[in-house]
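Page 47, continued from p. 46.
Same chain as before, 324 aa.
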Amino acid sequence: MIVDCAQYKDGKRRQPQPISLEQAAECPRGNGDFVWIGLHEPAEDELERLKGLFGLHELAVEDAARPHQRPKIEDYDESWFIVLRTAHYHEREERVHFGEVHIFVGSGYVITVRHGTGSELGTARSRLEARPDLLRMGPAAAVWATLDKVVDDYAPVADGIDDDIEEVEGEVFGESGTAPTERIYHLKREVIEFHRAAYPLLALLEALERGAYPPVPDELRRFFRDVHDHARRIDELVNSQRELLASILEANLTLISVKQAEIVKRISAYAAVIAIPTFIASNYGMNFEHMPELGSPIGYPLALMVMALSVIALVAFFRRISWL
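Result:
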């Protein structure tokens, strides 16, 4: 559906209410004046309307209709197509939900197509509308506002993952005795997916910062540089989280092996303690007629005493070597 559609002229929004797509296509554009159309999970017929009204490239429209694209920027001569991955940390589920934002940029227009949850762009639009000096720079300003919002939304996700990692560390090294291997694995998967969303933005933002794409005015490049710095910090944090989770998983498996070895030692010690009395009892239980001490009055007490002494000696030995 169409979330918002507005014309911007001389650094100001011309109409307080959203206009139709046909009105947006007829608005004069150029010299900093542009229209910004925002859509959320549009139907294919809406994208086809936009394709006809603004001359969007068919390959870009095809990508926008099908989410699960990788972050990228593509040059279609007089227009550009940008794909961003959004991320949202769900506190109750302790999971990261990913979405996408597709941006069509051309002479005098910006079209943002949002799929999934996370990074609603209403606040980005409001923030940009409060900066007439940036609005006068044209469509590139809307691209900056969108990128800045997406990257800023990565910070709460990184913080949420940090909290989960601290909890997992407590479970692994605490006295609870739990082995959260499955949770560590799922966290590692989410961090890898988060890295796939954030890392490709570095090359994209570097290109925009260097002015590799003509629609970015020189005055706006410093703003892209700021977003690039934020994205680099997020990428460094995600890399450290991946390394930390790998270390935690390795430590968890090591602790599991140590606990298993302790259990095996205890079982072996108990088996050894039981072995000698069992051997003596089974030896005298063979029911042969001629056996030592069968006719002695102290034979039975002596056998019991030997059993007891062997058990005491073995228990003392295994405790001394910390097997019991």
